[in-house]
């Protein structure tokens, strides 16, 4: 299985809309990731991602087929030494080790590309697979907020995981 990340392009619109239009994915993402997810949503998203230099978001491809996305988003103001990691993979590709590899690559990309000291990811409390892949890749649980996220007409716990530049430099990973 040939797994890589690359910049999105407009030829990804159809596949992105097909795979992203899935409640099992959307239920664990912010409302900026709409459901249902249309080709118009995909085109607008791709155009937004291409505005950044350096790039923040990438398509995840397996054997040249788009199967998901991953992004690292630097923060500003008093959080300017932090970046948020976000990701998703199409349901037919769950459990195949794709995201573990992509997270490793994005952590390296994030620390090499941006002037940041910490990368964090926020997960829904019941998204155990996402939590496991973060822990597997050297992230540590930093916080657990009870009933702070509102999605699908319900309140959900939010768990924050983080990884720091010094942990990588000190060989803790």
UniProtKB/TrEMBL annotation:
One Pfam family recorded for the sequence: Acetyltransf_3
Domain N-acetyltransferase: 11-166
InterPro entries: Acyl_CoA_acyltransferase (IPR016181), GNAT_dom (IPR000182), N-acetyltransferase (IPR051531)
Gene3D superfamilies: 3.40.630.30
GO molecular function: acyltransferase activity, transferring groups other than amino-acyl groups
Keywords: Acyltransferase, Transferase
PANTHER family reported in the protein's UniProt record: [RIBOSOMAL PROTEIN US5]-ALANINE N-ACETYLTRANSFERASE, GNAT FAMILY, PUTATIVE (AFU_ORTHOLOGUE AFUA_3G00765)-RELATED-RELATED
Family: Belongs to the acetyltransferase family. RimJ subfamily.
Protein's UniProt name: N-acetyltransferase
Highest classification ranks of the organism: Bacteria, Pseudomonadati, Bacteroidota, Flavobacteriia, Flavobacteriales
């Amino acid at each position: 299985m040939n797994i890589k990340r690359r910049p999105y392009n407009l030829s990804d619109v159809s596949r992105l809309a097909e795979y992203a239009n899935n409640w099992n994915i959307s239920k664990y993402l912010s409302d900026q990731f709409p459901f249902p997810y249309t080709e118009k949503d995909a085109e607008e998203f791709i155009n937004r991602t291409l505005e950044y230099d350096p790039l923040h978001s990438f398509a995840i491809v397996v054997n040249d087929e788009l199967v998901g996305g991953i992004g690292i988003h630097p923060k500003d103001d008093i959080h300017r030494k932090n970046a948020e990691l976000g990701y998703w993979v199409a349901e037919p590709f769950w459990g195949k080790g794709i995201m573990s590899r992509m997270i490793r690559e994005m952590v390296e990309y994030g620390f090499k590309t941006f002037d940041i000291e910490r990368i964090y990811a926020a997960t829904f409390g019941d998204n155990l697979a996402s939590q496991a892949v973060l822990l597997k890749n050297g992230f540590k649980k930093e916080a657990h907020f009870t009933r702070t996220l509102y999605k699908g007409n319900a309140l959900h716990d939010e768990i924050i995981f983080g990884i720091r530049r010094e942990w990588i430099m000190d060989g803790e990973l």
